[in-house]
Structures are given as C-alpha cells and as structure tokens.
Design goal:
Distance between the termini: 32 Å
Structural class: mainly beta
Helix content: under 10%
Order of helices and strands: EEEEEEEEEEEEEEEEEEE
Shape: globular
Number of domains: 2
CATH class of the largest domain: Mainly Beta
Radius of gyration: 18 Å
Largest sheet: 6 strands, antiparallel
Length: about 230
C-alpha cells in the first residue's frame, strides 16, 4: 500500500528537485554506450539546467541556439566534480555538445506544455517527481516522461535507485514497464497512448544505495484525450 505525506500537482516542476544532466565517467571514450545520463532533456521556459561533471577529467559544453545559428552558451572548462548552469529563456530545441569529444551530444526541449506531480514518501525519505510532456497527451501521440528521485534530507537528487516504471491502462492492465538502476537520480521514458481515459503511471522503488528495501509504490494519473 502506498503511503505518502504530500502530493503536489502543478504544471511547473517543483523547485527543490534539481534539473541536472550528468557527464558520466569515461565519457571521453567514444566506445561507451552513452556519455550523458540523459541525452534528451525537457524543461519549462525559464528553468535552469546544470551540467555536472562526474568524470575524472575536465569537459566543456557548448549549447547551440535553437535555430542552429551560432552558440547560445559556452561552459568553458568544467573540472571534475564541477558544474555549469544555463537558464533557458525561450522555447525551442537546443543542442548541447562537447567541442573536444564530438560524440558527446544531446538536446534540451524547452516548452510550456508540461505537467508535473511530486509525491513524498516518509517510508524511505525519497520523493518522486514525475514530469511529462505534453501535459494532456492525445491518442497516438508520444508522451515523454522524466522521473527525478529526490533525497528529502538534502533536497538533492538521490543517487543509486533501483526502480520500476510502469503504466496501467484505464482497465488496470500493465501496458508499459521498464526496470532499471538510476545512478544519478534522473531517468526518462517515452510511451504512445492508444486509447483515451485515465492512465496510471506507477514508480516502484525496491533498492536504495544498492541495498534492497521493502518495495514502495507511488501511483500517478494522466488523462489521455482523443
């Protein structure tokens, strides 16, 4: 049974979660499967993203303007365990990349059609923020999800979470499920709804900092229209 002390429903992601893209260790090696924890990120206009360098060498990030003409921002050198922040003032899709390691690329989508729900669970001191775009999905439309795990003791993203993200249909059948380990506390998913109604995404945490815990489930609701 899900126990929670606070539910926040808003169209603006809650302030105490971090919008962070992590440069993962060994990103300079082009043979790696990925170089950022989430290469495709989405936020509201006016929000800030922090690029955190978890690698043991320095990196540099360049953000290209949404029209592809010129540089919007240049991080300069980001040392190991350092970070770079940029606030996005306008809607659009922005590419970010490394001028040193060109295989390190990603994008940020900035728009206002986003909804977010945060559930705080006292059982494990971890809040779950589920954000999705578009805010009211339509049948046949791909909906993008962002899951942020928040350590309530520090108000920072909670690292090393084993979780299950699933979506239940209006008749309570599981239509989508992914089971993963979140190293940095931010995860993504995408799903195309095939019918109208109220769908119920669920996030289940079953391990914290590599230690199994009694599974904790938090259920969300999304209205899908024709």
């Amino acid at each position: 049974m899900t126990i929670f002390s606070l539910i926040l429903i808003t169209n603006i992601p809650v302030a105490f979660s971090e919008e962070v893209i992590t440069i993962i260790p060994c990103s300079s090696n082009h043979n790696n499967d990925k170089f950022f924890d989430i290469p495709s990120y989405f936020i509201q206009k006016g929000q800030q993203i922090r690029w955190y360098n978890a690698d043991d060498i320095s990196h540099r990030i360049v953000i290209t303007k949404s029209d592809g003409k010129g540089i919007l921002s240049d991080s300069g050198i980001i040392k190991a365990n350092g970070s770079f922040q940029h606030r996005f003032a306008n809607d659009g899709i922005y590419t970010f990349s490394s001028p040193v390691y060109p295989w390190m690329q990603g994008n940020v989508s900035v728009n206002s059609d986003i909804s977010s729900v945060t559930m705080t669970n006292p059982k494990n001191n971890v809040a779950i923020q589920l954000t999705w775009a578009p805010s009211v999905p339509k049948v046949g439309q791909i909906t993008h999800f962002k899951i942020i795990f928040i350590d309530l003791k520090t108000n920072k993203n909670q690292k090393h979470i084993d979780y299950v993200f699933s979506i239940n249909t209006p008749n309570n059948k599981t239509s989508y499920q992914q089971t993963l380990h979140s190293s940095w506390g931010v995860e993504s998913a995408a799903y195309k709804f095939d019918t109208t109604g109220i769908f119920k995404p669920r996030v289940t945490i079953d391990a914290l900092l590599f230690q199994p815990i009694e599974p904790v489930e938090d259920d969300f609701k999304i209205l899908v229209k024709a």
